[in-house]
């Protein structure tokens, strides 16, 4: 999956969603230390934590949406758990960003 998704060899991956029906690992996303790596419809890329702040995340009928990307989940429990994790990650990223902005504001005074 690391090779197919273009994930650097030294990247640590914590969570993988395989959206393929047969479990071939050619579609889905992987959450790593530097962001979310994804492949969908033969298009692979990376969403950095900074980029995630500006993307909507939502739970659809049987999928999770990150911005314009739509990842099919194979089970409801998988969808619910992954969506909760994404929301929590996004909250942490936003919190860290707010702290950095406040710190910069204090340094400028």
Query: Which sequence of SSEs, written as H and E, runs from N to C?
Result: HEEEEHEEEH
CATH architecture: Roll
Class based on secondary structure composition and strand pairing: alpha+beta
Give the averaged pLDDT, no decimals.
85
Which bin fits the share of residues in helices?
25-40%
Q: How much of the polypeptide forms β-strand, as a percent range?
A: 25-35%
| End-to-end distance | 48 Å
Count of β-strands: 7
Q: Numbering strands along the chain, what is their spatial order in the largest sheet?
A: 1-2-3-4
Summed up, the domain count is 1
Overall radius of gyration: 15 Å
| Quaternary structure | single chain
Low-confidence spans: none
CATH fold name, please?
A: PH-domain like
- Given the C-alpha coordinates, what overall shape results? globular
Key features?
single chain, 109 residues, PH-domain like, three-stranded antiparallel sheet, 7 strands, 38% helix
Written description of the protein model:
There is one protein chain. This protein has helices spanning 2-5, 49-52, 76-108, and strands spanning 13-18, 28-32, 35-40, 43-48, 57-59, 63-66, 69-72. With 109 residues, the protein is of the alpha+beta class. It has a single domain (2-100), classed as PH-domain like (Roll), CATH 2.30.29. Strands 1-2-3-4 form a four-stranded antiparallel beta sheet. Strands 5-6-7 form a three-stranded antiparallel beta sheet, with helices on one face.
